[in-house]
Amino acid sequence: MVKSIAYTVTAILVCIGLFIFAEWYLKDQFNEFSGALDALYSKIEDETATAEDGYAVRSLWEEKKSKLQVLIPHNDISYIDYWLSEACGLLYNGRYDLALGKIEVLKEITKNLPDAYDLRLENIF
């Protein structure tokens, strides 16, 4: 009986530890990506951004998403892919005004998405 309780408590503690690590890791990855989006946003506002700047941010995202696919659903990842591809296409065509809106949406997504996976009561139930 004591062994069962000890194993159960150990399993619960390991799970909580994993959830806390995943939360920390997600926030760290999205903070870095958010910084790249902020830099791109500033360049787009100044109308000095090029398609290569957008592709550099997309390359960073490709690097991040390969690790994040373990922790978050593929739908959330493809949502970011979609908006980022649109922004890159608009930058390629020099449509800074429209690209700015796409990057604004991406900034909001990267701010809110990690919060959806926080270890909070409303996310559990």
Element-level helix/strand string: HHHHH
* Percent of residues in β-strands: under 5%
Give a quick account of the main beta sheet: strands, pairing sense, barrel closure: none
Helix content: over 70%
The overall average pLDDT, rounded, is 89
- The general outline is elongated
Number of strands: 0
Helix run count: 5
Weakly predicted, low-confidence segments: none
Structural class: mainly alpha
- The Cα radius of gyration reads 19 Å
Q: How far is it from the N-terminal to the C-terminal residue, by CA?
A: 30 Å
What does it look like?
- With 125 residues, the chain is mostly helical.
- It has 5 helices and no strands.
- It is elongated.
- The model has no long low-confidence stretch (mean pLDDT 89).
Name some characteristics of this structure:
125 residues, mainly alpha, 82% helix
SSE map:
Blueprint: H1 2-45, H2 51-68, H3 74-92, H4 96-112, H5 121-124
Helix pairs in contact: 1-2, 1-4, 2-3, 3-4
What is the structure about, briefly put?
This protein has 125 residues and is mainly α.
